[in-house]
Request: fold
Amino acid sequence: MELTVEADDSGKRLDSFLHERLAEFSRARLQSWIKAGRVDVNGAGARASYLVRAGDTIVVSPAALAPLKAEAEQLPLKILYEDADVIVVDKPAGMVVHAGAGHSRGTLVNALLHRFGPLSAVNGDLRPGIVHRLDRETSGALVVARTDRAHHSLAAQFQARQVEKIYLALVHGKTKPHGRITTPIARDPVRRIRMTTKLASGREAITEYRLLEAFDRFSYLEVRIGTGRTHQIRVHFSSLRHPVFGDRVYGAPASDLGRFFLHAHRLQFQSPSTGEPIRVESPLAPELASHLDALRAARPKAGGDQP
Reply:
């Protein structure tokens, strides 16, 4: 893989630059390749701490990756709903859904395998039971298929946009009382860890929102998505200059929250066996509720002393 450093990337550490451009690989794996001499800068080896310069040509020769497989692991797990077909779990922020580059332990799938045993095999050994995903720092409700039959039913419902997906988000700035965003979304060709709405091409994406509560510098929103594109809510609101609070990848300033303010609040779908509606809600994560309470407490008191 050959990469050219653009002016905007000048001054970044080599390992950081590679992690942004090659997001499918973990930073640790990239650092190991640098150390093993599998990364050349302008035809010569370099340290991970090397500061790249505009015009540098970087060639990466990846080593073979060991096959990944989900393995049962005893981890805390909060279940919102379960029956013979499905499990709806309350995923905490910071937990990766399934194993991937740099993440083989501590995943949601590993925890589910330990507690429930075999899950749907439709997505193979790496993602058993997984029909949809949440970003690592997004908390809330996620449905998992226990059987292949249930998996096919849920996948068809997601494909037909029959699953109701409601999120709660705090974004920067003051939004309109309600709105609909339909800008197509594509992978950012420069920063591969990001998505973008700035390309002529892209996949259809539908995000609707209504304002729940307005603050001086923030808006608390209920968000409904009609599609499930990668980072959809985050990139859509960033495109309106209302990035999700704490989401530095999409332009929000740093915060002390330790995550971004995005929570999968409600899922509604049809039971794969009976066709009856199943509606499950996840209460706002405690750290998000506390942050919201602090914003409310900081509001100027009505009817205060006049100057």
